[in-house]
Amino acid sequence: MDRHIIIFATDKRQEALEQLLSGQKVRCSWDAYRREDICEKIYVLPTPVSKLDKNTVLKEKLKQELINCKGPVMVFAGAVNMEWKNFLEENGIAYWDFMQMQEVVEGNARITAEATIAEVLLRSFRSICEQTILVTGYGCCGSRIAKVFHALGAEVIVAARREAVRIQVEEDGYQSIDFSEINNVINRVDTVINTVPAVVITEEIIENMRKDSLIVDIASSPGGTDFEAAKRHEIPAYPALGLPGIYTTMSSAELLKNAISKHAPLQKDVKEDRQWIFQIII
Predict the structure, then answer these.
(1) Tell me, which fold does domain 104-244 have in CATH?
(2) What are the structural domain ranges in the chain?
(3) At 32, is the pLDDT very low, low, confident or very high (cuts 50, 70, 90)?
(4) Measured between alpha carbons, how far is 192 from 89 in angstroms, rounded to an integer?
(5) Which residue among 15, 53, 135, 182 has the highest number of C-beta atoms inside a 10 angstrom radius?
(6) Cα–Cα distance, 259 to 174 (Å, whole number)
(7) Order of strands across the sheet that contains 175-177
(8) What separation in angstroms does the CA of 254 have from each of 14, 39, 88, 185, 258?
(9) 3-state secondary structure of 168
(10) Rounded Cα–Cα distance for residues 134 and 137 (Å)
């Protein structure tokens, strides 16, 4: 049976994924995609899948296509929201969420931490080894970010809510504070790196920041910074979303390829006339 792998390209990560796969390759619009009634289909949707909301017509056409598929169907996507979860489950469509796969989450955190270095160097006037960095949140990304900035010589302070996490922060070699204590240290912080997807960098904190300091917010939209307050107080604040889709995109694509391969083995020696790679430009 022929196999179609349909990749919805919304960043360079998906574009790189196409390069890693064997088969006949076609770049086209959704309407130009060559359909076959009976074939195995693997749909690789964006990360996050909510990026499809920018094109509601395409999204509805895709849903109808998934319902009408006659052959085996698999869907891979990142950060599958409730809308898509309900749709896929109600229609009995097999799906996997990249952001629920530990190897992808950990790999993304590593790449995000490295990319955050680039973002800070791009925005800041100071060498990292001369900076005091405040990392808000100590999950998978926050802990990686603290590690790489500390390795580069920065003083690292981590804000975390739970006492158990703060104990871990101290054991890892960094200063820990509760979020309620941020204002006690904020005037000596050069760069704030937020990883929390809820507003934790409030106006009360921003108004006490130095004018030569910086906020880089990597949390998913809308982020964890009061950007309007930052603008009012003239503190540079930058949302830095989707870093694995901007930096080291081939490494990011390898993560996706390996995750897909676990559930839909991708043979290197597959005959090119039996596997087609369609990159849908949206």
Answers:
(1) Rossmann fold (3.40.50)
(2) 3-102+248-281, 104-244
(3) confident
(4) 40
(5) 135
(6) 33
(7) 175-177, 155-159, 132-136, 191-194, 214-217, 237-239
(8) 10, 25, 25, 40, 6
(9) helix
(10) 10
3-state SS assignment for residue 31: coil
Cα 214 from Cα 194, distance rounded (Å): 11
Strands of 40-44's sheet in order across = 24-28, 275-281, 3-9, 40-44, 73-77, 94-97
Query: Which residues does residue 27 pair with via DSSP β-bridges, in sequence order?
Result: 279
Please indicate whether the domains covering 3-102+248-281 and 104-244 agree at the CATH topology level: yes
- What are the tens digits of pLDDT across the range 124-175? 999 999 999 999 999 999 999 999 999 999 999 999 999 999 999 999 999 9
Return the number of other C-beta atoms located less than 10 Å from residue 198's C-beta: 10
Residue 225 DSSP symbol: B
At which residue do the structure tokens 């030569």 appear? Answer: 212
- Name the CATH code of domain 3-102+248-281 (choices 3.40.50, 3.40.1350, 3.30.1150, 1.20.120): 3.40.50
CB of 194 closer than 8 Å to CB of 223: yes
Q: How far is CA 10 from CA 51, 123, 169, 236, 245, in A?
A: 8, 25, 36, 27, 9
Write the DSSP string, 79-90.
S--HHHHHHHHH
Tokens of 62: 């895709």
